[in-house]
Amino acid sequence: MSSMTAAPSPFSPADRPQLGLRERKKIKTREAIRTATYALVEEQGYDATTIEQIAERAEVSPSTVFRYFPTKEDIVLTDEFDPIIMEELRERPADEPWMTTLRYVMQKAIRLGIKEDPEVARLRTHLMVQVPAVRSRMMESMSVTGSMLCQAIAERTGRDPGSLEVRVYAMAIIGGLMETSLYWAENGHQDEFKDLVDRTLDVLEHGLSD
Fold first, then answer.
1. What is the C-alpha to C-alpha distance for residues 208 and 206, in angstroms, rounded to an integer?
2. What's the CA gap between 109 and 102, in Å, rounded?
3. pTM of the full predicted structure?
4. Per residue in 159-171, pLDDT tens?
5. How many CB atoms lie within 10 A of CB 204?
6. How many CB atoms are closer than 10 A to CB 139?
7. 145 — phi, psi (to 5°)?
8. Count of alpha carbons within 13 Å of 9, Cβ hemisphere only?
9. Quick one: which H or E segment has residue 30?
10. Cis status, amide bond into 163, omega within 30 of 0
């Protein structure tokens, strides 16, 4: 989304040895920009935070910020998370039931990601609820994450990733996770996010039956 959950990336991609120096530097720059943005938003609010202020706090130029993030909303919403989730999905046993795989990967991501920085997770979901531009941009970005998930589902099931059935199923998952994030924030982050995701996956697996 693009972010499939509200949490920051739990898998520390910047530390992965297979990434080259250039890619690690790019990730570090993106993370510096996001960190600066979160700090400024907490200090003065989202609307008052400008790209120029973010650039100064992150010690980069405004053009660098725009090169990594086309809009201010993208800074809040994007992370290194989606490709890592897809990788985790692909690494699960091929004969494992799909919903078991999805539960395992999502719970691992939530457990490690929110533990890493719970305040960022809460801030991001709060902004999704409170700032229409952030919520709108998230809706736009869902199609990108959806395409990635379609590929993962197709690899597991042998179906065409462009088929109606796969597309509907993938977007149902992503839409469900987005609504879970909104629900979490709208209700003051009182519930454990992992428990809400479990309830969401129950609905996707069983419908509205008790």
1. 7
2. 11
3. 0.81
4. 999 999 999 999 9
5. 16
6. 11
7. -65, -35
8. 27
9. helix 21-44
10. no
